[in-house]
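User: Thanks for the earlier help. One more: Tc1-like transposase DDE domain-containing protein. Can you show the sequence and predicted structure together?

Assistant: Of course, both are below.
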Amino acid sequence: MPNRRLSLDIIDLAIRLVAEGTVTVSYLDRNGIISKSTFYRHRIRGLEVKRKSTGRPRLLPYSVAEFLYELVLRRPALYLDELRSILRRINGRSISLSTVHSKRSRNAVLPRPYARGKRLSCIAALGIDGCFASRAVQGSFNEHLFYTYLKNDLLPYMTPFPGPRSVLVLDNASIHHSHRIRILVEDIFNCKLEFLPPYSPDFNPIERAFAKIKASLRRQNAAVVDPNHFFEAVRDITLKDCEGWMRLAGYVCG
């Protein structure tokens, strides 16, 4: 990022924070807020004492808001909850996420390096008691890979119908509709196989699970996703998540 002229408010705030022991000069320099040389060059001029303004005080002082703005310019991938944690450390206040927002007509600039990786297909199962049987393969899933996944990964977790985990609900992807998959599920493992109506994501709670997984992957800001990233994201799904998604899809009553 090109050199930018720092406002005196930003420099004063940085000097105050270091004097209070809230942050270190190395932290400010490492995160691109203010360099060590700039900090020490301006510290000798002393801190300005400003007259209090009349009227309702700002929730965030202007200098703190400018500090956050500079931080976002240096690290545009920061999330709001991370900014809130930083603000709590430097200002001693805990605020709602809605209070931290961008300047009007300004968008965050986030560089995304172009890296063409290999296609990674990920799959997992969702029940009311958790997300399980996750698997990732290079390339795309076909009928053979899906059959192998059911046989080796998913169906061993299930029980014969009508026991717990005994009903397998699939969407209408073409690879799901093979005769040998029905034989595997119903005749070999004695489970019940059901298919969702076409175009019915509201009845498919795994859609919400993968929305959370994708959000977790985006948060990691990795240029290329590997299987370990996917497995870590699956582990972030809680029992409360699963029960809520199953309830929203109509599979849990009461």
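User: Great, one quick takeaway?

Assistant: Residues 120-248 form a domain with the Nucleotidyltransferase; domain 5 fold (CATH 3.30.420.10).
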